[in-house]
Write a structure and sequence with these properties.
The chain is mainly beta and 163 residues long. It contains one helix and twelve strands, in the order αββββββββββββ. It starts with a helix and ends with a strand. The relative contact order is 0.18.
Length: 163
């Protein structure tokens, strides 16, 4: 199994909602896990063993009647308008890093001007460090993920005001 097939498998696991996938072949074994509650289903194939772990079904939501209050309810503050910003999303599952090392400077900070091709962060997946480059030019408005946090496929990482 080559790196491209492994990356495709990671993307599939992220999109499918599967909790865990394990594949064992002659001299190769890979296990991909997510943070969902497991439900186990096993399947045995002669040349390889594949274990499928489906997500646990969600409990039905209880609907309670609204409680009446005599005090007036304050209007909620309007949400910030993010429609004018471009969201840069994670292309893979892994661990998000804002710098190349603990003693290295951050790739980008809020307020930094970026251009297409600039490295924004690193995502570590299976001991491979992947530099994530910007596909847009503009200004970093917000960093949406904490350093050294796990990220999912297609998870928003940055908000960028286009140039």
């Amino acid at each position: 199994m080559d790196i491209k097939q492994i990356q495709d498998l990671i993307r599939f696991v992220a999109k499918s909602g599967v909790n865990e996938v394990s594949i064992e072949q002659n001299e190769f074994k890979i296990t991909i896990k997510t943070n969902q509650a497991p439900t186990y289903v096993n399947a045995n194939v002669p040349t390889e063993a594949i274990q499928y772990v489906a997500p646990a079904p969600a409990a039905p939501a209880a609907i309670a009647p609204a409680a009446e209050t005599s005090a007036p309810v304050a209007a909620a503050a309007p949400a910030a308008d993010t429609s004018k910003y471009i969201t840069i999303k994670s292309p893979m599952i892994g661990t998000f890093y804002r710098s190349a090392g603990p003693d290295k400077p951050l790739f980008v900070n809020v307020g930094d001007e970026i251009k297409t091709g600039d490295v924004l962060c690193i995502i570590e997946a299976m001991k491979l460090f992947n530099e994530i480059e910007s596909e847009v030019s503009g200004k970093i408005v917000k960093v949406l993920v904490d350093n050294a946090s796990p990220v999912e496929y297609d998870q928003p990482l940055f908000l960028v005001e286009p140039a």
